[in-house]
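Appendix B, example 12.
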Amino acid sequence: MVAFDDLLHARLGGMQDAVNDWSETVKKLKTLQEKAENGMQRKAEKADWKGQNAGVTRPFIKKTAKEFGDAAKEAESIRNILRDAHHEFKAAKDKLKKIVDDAPKQGIHIDPDGTVGYLVHPDRRPKGYDGPKPKEGEFDRVRADIKEAVSAATEADETAARALRTLTGKDDNNFSGTEYRSLKQAAHAQDAEDAKAAAKLVAKGDGASSEEIARLNKYFTDNKGDAYFAERFALEVGVKGNLDYWVDMGDPSDGSRLAVDHQKQIKELQQNWSMTLAEATHSHSPAMERWKSDVISSGTDVVQSRGTSAYGFQVMSNLMRHGSFDTKFLKDYGSAVTVAERRMTHDGGLRPGQVWNAGLGMPPHLNWDGKDLGRDPMAGFMEALGHNSKASTDFFNSKIEVPSDGHGDHKPVDAFRYFTKDRAWVEDTYKDGYGTKYGYDSLGHALESAATGHAYDAPTEGLKDTRTLDNAKVVQKIVGFYGSDPKFSHEQGISDSLGKIGSAYIDEFNRSMEQESIDSMRETRNSPFGANLPDGTSRFGTHYNDNLLFNSGDAVNYLSIVSQSKEGHALLSAAQTVYTAHTLGVVGPDPTANELKNTDLTDAHTMVRVSAETHGILDHSRMGQIDQDYADDSEEKKKAIAQSSEWIKFGTEAVVGGGLTIATEGAAGPFVPLIADTVGSAVVSGLGMYTDEAAEDHAENMDRELKKKYDDLQADTLARGKEYTQMPVDAYCDAPGWSEENRNFIQEDLTGLLKDSRLHFGDSDLPDPYKKKDD
């Protein structure tokens, strides 16, 4: 890996001199080659030699002449490699130097090791500072540019080093004769060589040793993200080899101990293999288009090993759990596997679990990630959709045509309805039991991707708000369906995914919650909410400039039902808190305003009122569910109540310039859509201090809380919820710039409104959100 500082200060003059020297060497060797071939070799061929001269000397002269040609080829290849490597190094160095030179103009400082930070930290800026104030988005761009430059230099360095080693060869007495016209050609040759070597290891199946599997994994990791290697590997192994290998690996009947004793290695192999195939599907070469078509046409074929068998769709879907597969391929694959299932089940006459393993031998172990065994092809496919938001969005907005097979009419399948409601998910064995747990978990991942416009497990840091109307259409379905009856989220167990989806649309939920009418689809005029673009129009199209994605009745039902679970309550509570803090800073009066008593505070009041009502719904829905789940005054019930306040430990992390994320202990957290604003971001930063203190206090007092009686603990927990609801207001009132008089005024004004609004949610005559309805 090329170091940042080494690249920035690299002295490339010596490398250019080497290129020039090798160019001169090439000229001299070509001259010697010409003399050897046209002189010495030609004369030897014409000579009328007999005996030993003919049998020994002539072949020796011919071989010697060839060595001059090989030497010229090798010298020219070395020159070409050094020339292209020098060009890549110089381009990367020039880019890096420009980044470093331009950084101070943006208020950014770059350390010698490439670490990016403030030129003047906000805490150290003098009064009246008017220099550049970089946003997090600018930091992200600089980091990305640095990474791109260093990665380009590293790739060139590694390719050149390997090419030069190949050229020098292992024969001390002969030139290699290898010819490289460019660094790119050398890279492709290396990729093809690695792909062939990897395919040879694959051909050993589960007869390979642990060391050979480690070597196969290394081929994948060394070529991660390399499109040419990925394509060559997919084609070298072939569709049949791909399917046969994984059925064989999951067959315990042949006595192989590889998958039994080295499950961690096989898990890594499955992930690497999946990511490699994902990369390969983005190639549109004729060979890869045939490969993709063959994968789909092989879906209903039975793949047989010694003692197990599986359908092609079952095998391939487990090799789609990682990486971002090509959008068109996923759409074609999804349609094909759905059509196959509908035909196999006779349009729902049978359960999918009855047909995917019907008539087959013992099912092989196909999924090695420690979850289920991989029997349901839809689970792996949903994971693939979860990593490609465009494909998942299109899929859940689609109707899949099922052609008639001569046995009655086939109606189009509404993809969203089928996978969320109509389909009986296949039960599978997993670590802790048997059931549909991980199938639904994968469905949740796919829905997240379709709703948010991001892969479900994408790192939240630096995510931008890329939601489109197509994403919003999926969300409308999600809110309508999962908000219609608690049984769906309870039975499917995907409240964590539904919570993240709610977080990503927290602005739209607030926009709906502002309405007095529960069924109105018209926005309140001049609403402070909504995912609007800088020009004030909705990112979901002009229709939504004045209209809602969903009405307040549906919003309340969805928020209530999702927040019944611990995960849903935590995600939505954290998102609402952060969104409130930021939006107050955007729509409330600027702290530097001179006079507040005659200032219009309508938007600030609206934000506080809606936030307080929303938190009230979230907290009481969670308490209502706990009441149903546990016996009164049991230790489990008290623990659940006490833990309902733990969402505060998430803390906050501002990402100015396109979004805001909430850190969730390393997991992919909720994405909260926000507009960039200095005051709003400052308020969120201040909020972090309050949440940190509250989280620390909660952890310290947990044991004492659990010793309280149930009624007291519940009352105290709800009171703590009110305190947490107050935090955005306190952070806003603590923002720098307020005069003491104005701070006191705004604090009293908003706090009084908040307390009244916290109680208001209970006046709603909406249906009880956590009462289960009849089927």
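The two ends are 60 Å apart (CA to CA). The chain is about 60% helix and 5% strand.
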